[in-house]
Amino acid sequence: MSFFIGMIVNAILLSIPIGASLGTMIAIKPFRNERVKPPVEQNAIFETTYCDSSHEFHQFAQNKNGVNYTIHTSRSLNIPPFGRTANKRFPVNSNEFLTAIESTLCLTVTQNQNNTYTSNDTAPDFFITWEYPFTPANVSSPPNETKPLAHAFPQATLQDTALPITLLDLGALELVFSWTMGIGDEAAPSTSVRRLESQAVNATVALDLFLDADPVIAGQGGKAAFEMLILFASYGLQDPIGFGNGSNTIAAHTTAAGNDFDLYAGKNDNLQNVFTWVASDPNGITDFNGDISPLFNVVLNLASTAKNFAELDVTLPIFGDYLGYVGFGSQTYSSIGHVTFAVPKLGIDLQPFANPNAPV
């Protein structure tokens, strides 16, 4: 589902996820009419809302002083794209893989007509409004133990020129963000867990990373051998993959940028090895600024540190495996009423180690 106020992406190329499923939306209820504020001068600002279209659409928004961007959704307005030859792009993808008749999925984007922003790495503003009915994941379970199925994972995805990159060559993966999740059609000023609970919201906010020994497959999310999720927030009834796996369900614990995370490990239905870091703060981490690459090291060394590793039944990545996919967004499961996920700030800076053989 996705985002709203200004978005910052450092030294990055962001591109459409290959591995994610893009379902065709059916019988969608748009939360407002699709609209455009037509520019009247070179520095004008115009806003578009994408809801209920059955075809895919790519809109390229160029930052002429730096990074270029792409807005991508599976429902669209008929707006001419520009900057198609740009070599750096920032896509926002609806990633709906489980459609529902009684549902809403709308993306709103604000852009500067003159293609200049507050910095060379600033993206257009955007946010996602959604609503999905509760779809049981385990219908045979008692009602009080039933978990929901995810319907979509809208996210902004990174395609830096350094990707794919081996973990051995990954110097740092700096992540900066600020987001809110609230009830209704507009971005909330802050996130209220109590309000989300009152509308039975089931959703997460996560960084999604895929790895594989093959550099091409590493960029094709659904085909990669390994997935690492960092859940900065988790609201509702869903459990991470690996929850309850082994006698000690938490495989590891660590701290990143002053925030505590617990690690769960297991395999999903595609038999991918999934490593999920869950923030310990029940309110969620709505602001973050730090390097998340040390989380890879914990996973790489899990065999020697996790007391219950043999019970996890997972294969671990190695330093020679490639990181090929990085995406930040929200897993959307269900809610009673509309939910808006807005990201006023996002920055992803992938920093490879310096090549010792490079000319000075």
From TrEMBL:
The UniProt record lists the keyword Transmembrane: yes
Keywords, in A-Z order: Carbohydrate metabolism, Glycosidase, Hydrolase, Membrane, Polysaccharide degradation, Transmembrane, Transmembrane helix
Any one of the GO BP annotations: polysaccharide catabolic process
A Pfam family assignment: Glyco_hydro_12
Chain ranges passing through the membrane: 6-28
GO MF entries: cellulase activity
Superkingdom of origin: Eukaryota
Record's keyword annotation contains Membrane: yes
Family under the similarity heading: Belongs to the glycosyl hydrolase 12 (cellulase H) family.
Protein's UniProt name: Glycoside hydrolase family 12 protein
